[in-house]
Amino acid sequence: MRKSLWANPPARRVLRAGVVGTHMAKFLYSAAMSLDGFIAGPGGDVSWMADHLGPNPVVDQLIAQTGAILVGNRTFGGDDPYQGQEGEGEVFGGGWDGPQIVLTHRPPDEHRPGVTFVGDIETAISESRVAAGDKYVNVLGASVAAQCLAAGVLDEVLVSVTPVFLGDGTRLFEHPGGKTVRLKQINVSHTRQITNLWYRIAV
Q1: Which pTM was predicted?
Q2: Domains, the chain, ranges and CATH?
Q3: Rounded mean pLDDT of 23-37?
Q4: Partners of 197 in the β-ladder
């Protein structure tokens, strides 16, 4: 069973879109992040997200605008903040259904409906772009996002900052030796616990 890919309950209402264009899919890296910059704890642990599940209109908007998921295999098969709850094993906790492109060098033998396994980033980008139509390709996982950035296709970043320190784990973005990536702010919003930061990659 595939794992949940975002710590947010199923969307029950759709907000006005108006961010995505009408001609080609955009690639957006989305993640819940600790205040000290980690999207997963040691060993891929995301149980800390469970304390911050709750309504988030920005995530509802993202769900409505997502046409396809591009995800790394570790995120796809990793820990689930909904473990033991309704929505366990589902994208966005069961709030979204659609094509998923999983980047992996070790695809499983069994067929999984709605899931395509590919072995290289170029194919992953091409197939997810077609699958998304004129909506977002929602990129999940730090490694895949970094590869999309290096390939020059990453358009936007949406981070939901949670009030917790983790101290170690998987960083939102990491580049050996460092790399400056300039961003342009699109929107900042808040829920009771979460701060949503939405940026465009600056050209």
Answers
A1: 0.84
A2: 26-201 (3.40.430.10)
A3: 93
A4: 159, 188
